DNA sequence: TATTCTGCTATACGATCGTATAGTATTGAT
DNA sequence: ATCAATACTATACGATCGTATAGCAGAATA
């Protein structure tokens, strides 16, 4: 089985049916949630039948595992491609930017994670743990290469990285909804208030 | 395995069956989401049969409407009880505190709103619109009584109020999960980083 | 060419869902 | 005491869910 780690921006028609199914499910999960998405809806969106979904992914749990592994691969691929040169701060900034680019290229990632991470009881996957591990390894790598900032403890730094990158994206839909309701749909977009999310040492 | 979520039976015992059903559904929705909560689970949690749930609320939509009206009533009741005396800033601060107290007394409100507000596509209710209206009226009242701050436009101020009060509560579970994973379950609790959520004029 | 394997469709099964309906018990007004 | 409305239970129906199974077409292997 070949594994595509790098992101190939190919259109759906060039993909295998298995990848098309995963992508269809990914998009539906991000928009409507796993519970509200039936296997039949996934099959229809991918242009196949229900049986083929089961054939490739066994169960709905297996489908979610494939999606979450795909998300981890996207994060890893984004981080991996920035070279380890420059100061620690420069590397960290370059990684932040690479992840931000990946997120804006893959809005389904944000939608999926928003549901998964903010629904601690309902979500049955392990995506938060996997991404936290990845971020922890990212911080550890920086520490090995140069001198990581000692101003923050490692844990705080990992949490800070993830919250800064995801928190604003998670809350933005709420701001957008309220802005539309209060200011009307055709108000000047650049009057919209800016969301700021950060963590502080206690 | 029977797990009671949220409401203590002591409180429940002297309520009408209709209120018990609403409270049971409210707690279950907050913890597991509406889609993952069946009418039969609600009935069992309330100690009645499915038929009675339908008798009192007609449909599942009707049940959600009752819950969301209850939430609006809780917000209104919290705001209503602070007297209109002192400076505008003092009134606003007292209202913020009253709402914060209400939220800590009713954790199901936070859980329910977190699901509803962060799921703009999936949610079928109107709770965000209702609460935004309420907050807008709150700002308007302050403007009538005294002199509301002109430093921010009304819309920004409304959004600021709601984001400050809810944003931190929404993201906190994510911080908690990561903190537990990284620092271990028995780490010093006061080392945990603090979440800061705010909005800025653009 | 014969056989096996893989990608894929079609259909069906049991569980669970929201809801409708019919009937019983309890209350409240006259 | 009567009677109607309300509170509540029991059961059933149709739809939809995840998944199991059987079979077919075409490529691969020998």
TrEMBL record, chains A, B:
The keyword DNA-binding applies. GO terms for molecular function: DNA-binding transcription factor activity; transcription cis-regulatory region binding. InterPro entries: Homeodomain-like_sf, HTH-type_TetR-like_transc_reg, HTH_TetR. Residues 15-75 form the HTH tetR-type domain. The keyword Glycoprotein does not apply. SUPFAM superfamilies: Homeodomain-like. Keywords: DNA-binding, Transcription, Transcription regulation. Residues 38-57 bind DNA. Pfam families: TetR_N. This is Transcriptional regulator, TetR family. It comes from Marinobacter segnicrescens.
